[in-house]
From TrEMBL:
It is found in: Golgi apparatus membrane. Its main location: Golgi. This is Glycosyltransferase, catalytic subunit of cellulose synthase and poly-beta-1,6-N-acetylglucosamine synthase. InterPro entries: Nucleotide-diphossugar_trans.
Length: 517
């Protein structure tokens, strides 16, 4: 193998390894900020809410518009509408906008349900677009133009807000005119449905319990998570409004609003349960969108952040936050470079034991950092049974590695400026509920590449074991398990989806035949 190619591969390997170490150690800083501020901030928030309701009555509450962006969500849209209409808030001050861009039967389901709820006295309106310009951002922008409320609550179709959501969030916006957003914490409707949903729930808890808390309480830039939050309309306009040039319009607007001087607040104790995707291909599509959108936002926003007058640590936090999905190309590159470097690159093959030991110490501390963060998140989440849930942490680790191929493609697509559409994440509307509609999946071509990379990592692992380099072995083993598991599961869920769609079509044809007879 060419010496130049090997040296280039070694440079890439080192850069990727350093990247993983940096992102890993940033987890410890998030844990520090969370533990430092948790008790004080949560107590302060509770006191603030109690003080507000001692001094104000329900009649003093401001006008709120709840926006519900929907696209082909026939399985869960009715559940969403019922939950939002059940929110405890003065009816005359709560407008509900259903922003339905659906292109399938979901529109008729939504139209019928909206008419039913309007007849029951709710101020609910259906806004239907047929062009889907700017996707979700465009729908929210169009709805905001005619919204009555000075505050805008937003929920995706797979969320089920508690009755007291607005009562627990709106006061923060009233009490502090500089707060532009109040973000709630995501909960889980189907955490225990499968190993996949259990692993996802741990990952999401890590993000909200520790990372979002740390950013908000540590006075770093944080982001709106696209749902389960309440915006001040002026903060949206102040940040330049909704824009559809990235796939994470929520993160984009959050940064622009904060650069304009608005504050973001995360409320730890306001939990909004949501349905987790129980299909690996749906999960990968969701992660692809988040990964590509985050990097698109980084490219768009970071130059403005770096030129701003915010503190240096805030700038570093913003860089790590918006580029976080870069860990996936870093993982993929380390997996691909490890074997040829050992086999053909003499300096690596003859490194002294102490070099491996020191390198392993840094890599090990960085590698376990996410697990430490997840442990802290589960311990402090307030949920019972957290010790049992941590047993599924290896599944989450394998899952995080396994999607590195797909997410790396997303990162490269963002860097190259490749355009793409907003791909929805299919949901069933409840684990025990029969789905109204089954959405056909495309063949998971990326699973073939994941399979190839997984087999490649096995051969790399055997090479390292043969060379008695046992320190690197566990990492290559995790890579192999992750890539192979995600690949196999992708094919299994794809095949299962084919049968579900065929069964749904057959049942539909039977119903139509009976109706004709």
């Amino acid at each position: 193998m060419s010496t130049i190619l090997l040296y280039a591969m070694f440079v890439v390997y080192v850069i990727a390894g350093v990247g993983l170490v940096i992102y890993g150690f940033s987890c410890y800083y998030s844990i520090y900020l969370f533990l430092k501020n948790s008790r004080k901030t949560r107590l302060s928030d509770r006191k603030a809410i109690l003080k507000y309701y001692r001094e104000h009555s329900m009649a003093d509450l401001p006008q709120v518009t709840t926006q519900l962006p929907v696209f082909n969500e026939a399985n869960c849209v009715e559940r969403l509408l019922e939950a939002v209409c059940a929110i405890d808030y003065p009816k005359d001050k709560h407008e509900i906008q259903v922003l339905d861009d659906s292109t399938d039967e979901c529109y008729e389901v939504t139209k019928k349900k909206v008419a039913e709820l309007a007849a029951r006295g709710y101020d609910i309106k259906l806004i239907h677009r047929t062009n889907r310009k700017d996707f979700k951002a465009g729908a929210l922008k169009e709805g905001m133009a005619v919204a009555k409320g000075e505050f805008l609550a937003i929920f995706d179709a797979d969320f089920v807000p508690e009755k007291d959501f607005l009562l627990k969030t709106v006061p923060y916006l009233v009490m502090d005119p500089q707060v532009g957003l109040v973000q709630g914490r995501w909960g889980h409707l189907n955490r225990t449905e499968s190993g996949l949903t259990l692993a996802q729930s741990i990952g999401i808890d890590g993000h909200f319990v520790v990372e979002q808390s740390a950013r908000s309480w540590g006075k770093l830039f944080m982001n709106f998570n696209g749902t389960a939050g309440v915006w001040r309309k002026d903060a949206i306009y102040g940040g330049g409004g909704w824009e559809g040039d990235t796939l994470t319009e929520d993160m984009d607007l959050s940064y622009r609003s904060q650069l304009a001087g608005w504050k973001m607040k995360f409320v730890f104790d306001v939990i909004v349960p949501a349905e987790l995707p129980n299909d690996i291909n749906a999960f990968k599509a969701q992660q692809f969108r988040w990964a590509k959108g985050s990097i698109q936002t980084a490219i768009k926003i970071l130059p403005k952040v770096l030129r701003s007058k915010v503190p240096f640590r805030v700038k570093i936090g913003a860089i790590l936050h918006t580029t976080h999905y870069s860990i996936h190309p870093c993982m993929l590159f380390t997996a691909l470079c490890a074997w040829p470097l050992l086999a053909f690159f003499e300096p690596v093959g003859h490194l002294p034991t102490w070099a491996y030991t020191v390198g392993f110490a840094f890599i090990f501390l960085a590698a376990i950092a996410p697990s430490v963060l997840y442990f802290v998140a589960q311990r402090c989440s307030g949920y019972t049974g957290w010790k049992i849930r941590l047993l599924s942490l290896p599944i989450l680790m394998a899952l995080g590695v396994g999607i590195a191929v797909s997410n790396s493609r997303a990162v490269f697509a963002a860097v190259l400026g490749t355009k793409g559409s907003f791909v929805r994440t299919p949901k069933n509307g409840g684990a025990k509920k029969k789905a109204k509609s089954h959405y056909a999946q495309k063949f998971p071509w990326m699973a073939l590449l994941e399979l190839i990379v997984g087999v490649y990592c096995i051969f790399g692992l055997l090479e390292y074991i043969n060379a008695s380099k046992y320190i690197i072995g566990p990492f290559l083993a995790l890579y192999a398990i992750g890539f192979l598991s995600v690949s196999v599961l992708s094919f299994m869920h794809y095949i299962s989806n084919i049968f579900e769609v065929r069964k749904a079509i057959k049942c539909s044809e039977c119903v139509e035949e009976q109706a004709t007879n």
